[in-house]
Amino acid sequence: MLTSGVGWCAYHWLDRGVNTSSALDALRDGAPRGRGDAVNLLLIGLDSRKDMNGKDLPKEFVQDELHAGSSDIGGYNTNTLILMHIPAGGGKVTAFSIPRDDYVEIAGGRGEHKIKEAYGIAKAEAEEKLSAQGVKGADLEHRGREAGREATLATVQRFLGVPIDHFAEVNLLGFYDIAKVVQPVQVCLKHAVRDRYSGADFPAGLQELDARQALSFVRQRHGLPGGDLDRTHRQQAFLSSVTHKLKEQGVWSDFGKLQGLFDVIKKDVVIDNRWNILDFARQAPNLTGGNAEFHTLPIEGFANRKGEAVNLVDPEKVRSLVRAMTGQKEERKEGQGGGAPVAGPQHEGGGPGGSKGSGGGGGGGGGDDAKGGGSAPVSSDSFQGPPVKMGGVPCVD
After folding, report:
1. What pairs with residue 389 in β-bridges?
2. Do residues 354 and 69 lie in contact, with contact meaning Cβ atoms separated by under 8 Å?
3. Region annotation Disordered: residue ranges (predicted)?
4. Are 309 and 352 in contact (CB under 8 A)?
5. Which helix (H) or strand (E) holds 97?
6. pLDDT score for 330
7. pLDDT category, 29, cuts 50, 70, 90?
């Protein structure tokens, strides 16, 4: 009874101040069928140097503390897209990282672009129309971001072929604030790195990072053998380390300890309007006990489109893999789209070492044996590199 009372108080305390979005509402009716009470949660990392109202973050803070350049860099790209599948009643949690430069069909008839650009394209379109109607200031920013979220959610849902039940969005400032709450965070590197672009300067081996260093750790892509794809593995490793630390400190079961984290969530994170985040906190032990793993979705090669290096993808293969790994049957829908299928590994420029290279080559994901489907077993070679298991401190490039 006491536990229930604490939970009730915690829910209402959090519910009063959290930033919510209705962007998922428009997608629910036309979503692919899910599996029972399982939950698919999309984590969105927004590469924006602006606050919730669209105002630039202080220049000194962005450049000196975040080492992230001016507010003109990054725009509203979603540089992190991770779908987490949480089975009904517990069980193994499976997370899928979508490489940010995957070249796909953007929802709303906007043509093919990098998947990270869906948010910014839709936001700019909406704001142009709203500005003509006299909308301005914080209201314009809010409504523009809602359009960006809706386009991102619709694009990912179509690309992966599974429903998105909930989402959480955080920008650079939010990541930094969360990292401050949980710092220091242990990470492990296979090799020493030094990168002037992200500010990453770390020796090889196990080490502890403060919030500023953590941001550099997850943002570095220059100088890595796999480029952008290695950055994806860095993000996975960091999330694994954070959740492991929270479990070790007993944070998930202690509302007093959770309060500091919730304070940041209320300030910097946007979630959908139907998500009870305390329910997620109760499920969090599944993420921290080694009962969860990250996979990076496969690419077929690299190409140059509209002057930009992109990742070529096979949407049918991606959908088959995701549905097989989440235990869902294949569901073919006309117009599900997501970009034209690409047969076999291809390289048309870009890639590792290129000035605008979108990623590296490491791992599987290029062969004909990577198709998966139905409830058939899925080989780890089907994905881009080996999985990153949660529940510890993985060592990465």
Report:
1. 293
2. no
3. 325-397
4. no
5. strand 93-97
6. 62
7. confident
DSSP 124-170: HHHHHHHHHTT--HHHHHHHHHHHHHHHHHHHHHHHHTS---EEEEE
The rounded distance, in Å, linking the Cα atoms of 212 and 67 is 8
78 within 8 A of 235, measured Cβ to Cβ: no
Q: Name the residue among 369, 228, 258, 208 with its Cα closest to residue 11.
A: 258
Q: In the 8-state DSSP scheme, what is residue 56?
A: B
pTM as predicted: 0.83
| Residue showing tokens 């540089």 | 79
Token pair for 206? 């196990």
CA distance linking residue 84 with residue 41, whole number of Å: 5
Reported as a single tens digit per residue, the pLDDT across 367-388 is 333 333 333 445 546 677 788 8
What is the layout of strands, in order, in the sheet containing 308-312? 308-312, 301-305, 346-347
Contact (CB, 8 A) for 99 and 229: yes
What token pair was written down for 273? 């309007």
Look up the domain containing 335 and give its range.
Answer: 2-396
Least confident of 36-50, 191-205, 302-316, 324-338: 324-338
DSSP 8-state symbol, 102: B
How far is it, in rounded angstroms, from Cα 181 to Cα 288?
18
Give the pLDDT score at 384.
79
% helix / strand / coil in the chain, to the nearest 5? 40, 20, 40
Tell me what the mean pLDDT of segment 72-93 comes to: 84
Cβ-based neighbour number of residue 56 at 10 Å = 13
Look up residue 251 and give its amino acid: V
CA distance readout (Å), 206 to 311, 332, 389, 396: 32, 46, 17, 10
How far, rounded to the nearest angstrom, does the alpha carbon of residue 386 sit from its chain's CA centroid?
18
3 state DSSP class of 272: strand
pLDDT tens by residue, 66-76 = 666 555 555 79
**CB 257, CB 357: distance < 8 Å:** no
Total number of domains constituting the chain: 1
- The single residue listed with the structure tokens 């001016």 is 70
Coil, helix or strand at residue 306: coil
d(CA 139, CA 128): 13
Q: How far apart are CA 200 and CA 359, in angstroms?
A: 18
Domain with residue 215: its CATH number is: 3.40.630.190
Residues in the chain: 397
